[in-house]
Amino acid sequence: MHRRDSHVEHRRTVAPQGRGTVGAPTVERVERAVHEVSIAQAIVAAVSDAVGGERVQRVDVTVGALSGVAAPALEFAWEVATANTAMAGSVLVVESVPTTVFCPTCGKVVEPPVGFVCPGCGELSGDVRSGLELEVRSARLRDPGQTSS
Amino acid sequence: MSNATAPRIVELRRGVLEKNDRRAAVLRGRFAASGVRVSNWVSSPGTGKTTLLERLLADAVAREVRVAVLVGDCATDNDARRLAATGVPVRQIVTEGICHLEADMVTTHVDALEADGALLDELDLLVLENVGNLVCPTSYDLGEGTRVALLSVTEGEDKPLKYPQLFASSDVVVLTKVDIADAVEFDEAAARRAVEIVAPGRPVLATSARTGTGVAELLDLLLGCVGEAP
Q1: Among B38, B40, B65, B22, which residue's Cα sits nearest to residue B150?
Q2: Range 25-44 of A in CB contact (< 8 A) with B
Q3: How many Å lie between the alpha carbon of B136 and the closest alpha carbon of chain A?
Q4: Is the whole model's pTM more than 0.80, yes or no?
Q5: Lowest CB count within 10 Å: A32, A104, B130, B139, which one?
Q6: CB B176 within 8 A of CB B48
């Protein structure tokens, strides 16, 4: 697997590679939604294991651009996946991580605009330093006295 | 009384697919211990995975390579019946709507293969034909040594740029249906450039199930470089 450098990660509120959500559904779009539902269910399972039945207010996840998961579709799938769980009504906060590679020619970590092409010199590099992340970082528990979101 | 200034936060810091990754690691260990080469074939529906695999299995049987197949589809066992006609052990994994294979499905069906007498120890090659889908199978490690990304000449040369995750995670890229490349004006050099951009240095193999082009080379490759740690 490729090595990762946490210091090259950037916080973003919008997924850099999110696909369009307007227009008529296509087979690929439906496939995507199904995929993100199964990813959302995996997140629910991981959090459930960790919180032991406590109600959850917010879940933070990290999604790399190369992880195969589209942040907008994942946020959409969250409501479906959390229904009737301790996470019902919770917010999913996605930190998107762009793809970065180490360019040996420029001697530094760069963020390719397309594929693995260095924006500085145009050379290709498969030395991936970030973008593969797909992690649950933390869960914020609901206050026990709180009855609604 | 609640204390709004001290939210209770549980730190997880774990991979979303950690459970799948753990099961895949167990499978990888089993495959390595048995010396069986394992490949995971991923492409969109209609690329010709099953047709190419039929041809590859016939070659494998002729060369006395001991091979078995697990084939995933959302519904039907049509593919398994086609592949079983070659005489090799085949099991269909019906995912019932799930858009990819997961490591626990592979574990269940590898166990069933062994129960039917196709022991991993006695196999040279195990092929996992994934559900036709360019997105979802990318995230799920199946314990394979070689991930094969397939692209047919009818799909467009820029597909690797549109679905970089799959091609970047592959170990080899296979072009299919190259016998009709001219008829559909497929630009092989452009496709190879697109692969190079998202997966620098990845080998690209041109194949045709109809003419047999590249099939022996693909079999050699699957037998030679699989079963290793990723």
Answers
A1: B40
A2: 28, 31-32, 34-35, 38-39, 42-43
A3: 6
A4: yes
A5: A104
A6: yes
